[in-house]
Design brief:
single chain; 201 residues; mainly alpha; two-stranded antiparallel ribbon; 6 helices
């Protein structure tokens, strides 16, 4: 390996006018790395610009990672909020319909009853937390008979009223056409809505 030639610390280009004249093997912009280069970085305008660019370049991957983590955290927060709304919504439905028979098969109420959707929650996002689309339903109908939809459709209009049933059907038709997505404010408002509804039961 060829050893670098010793030269005087004397600034060139952006570092012109800086330098102590000391002989050194390692130079940047003609300045000795061990004597004047760091001083030029800290005290000159050109040096500070170079240093800030280097810092930003080094930090860029970390900034991108932070943005990704922040985005993932928001997604997780949104999913957590959806679960919270679902839990309190279903709690309200079970309390509201306590003592009533299964909406589909008419089985006698018990504490294993679930909140069964008329229009499925995974296909009709806009109706996922809509109280008139959800009723107390036995585990057999909800889990093993895919909601027992035919019987459900016969009983629901008389339970919620014809006008409200037509509203549910209309909402389902519109929901199927659009790519509806819940946002945080809507979910927070729903959580408060069902929390307050539970207090009035």
């Amino acid at each position: 390996m060829i050893k670098p030639k010793e030269k005087a610390c004397k600034g060139t280009g952006n570092a012109k006018g800086y330098g102590c004249g000391k002989l050194t093997y390692h130079r940047v912009y003609g300045l000795g790395k061990m004597c004047c280069y760091s001083n030029w970085l800290l005290t000159s305008e050109a040096g500070r610009i170079k240093m800030h660019k280097a810092i930003f370049k080094a930090a860029a991957p970390r900034l991108d990672m932070d943005k990704q983590i922040s985005s993932e955290k928001k997604t997780k927060d949104l999913e957590t909020l959806k679960k919270q709304v679902m839990n309190i919504c279903h709690k309200y439905i079970r309390l509201r319909d306590k003592g009533l028979p299964c909406i589909s098969c008419g089985a006698k109420w018990n504490d294993q009853f679930q909140a069964g959707h008329f229009f499925k929650a995974d296909k009709y996002s806009e109706l996922k937390y809509y109280e008139f689309n959800i009723s107390g339903q036995c585990r057999v109908c909800n889990l093993h008979k895919d909601g027992n939809h035919n019987e459900y459709s016969l009983k629901l209009p008389s339970k919620i009223g014809k006008k409200e049933f037509e509203t549910v059907v209309k909402m389902a038709a519109e929901s199927k056409k659009s790519a509806f997505k819940w946002d945080r404010q809507e979910l927070k408002a729903l959580y408060i809505y069902y929390r307050d509804k539970i207090k009035t039961l």
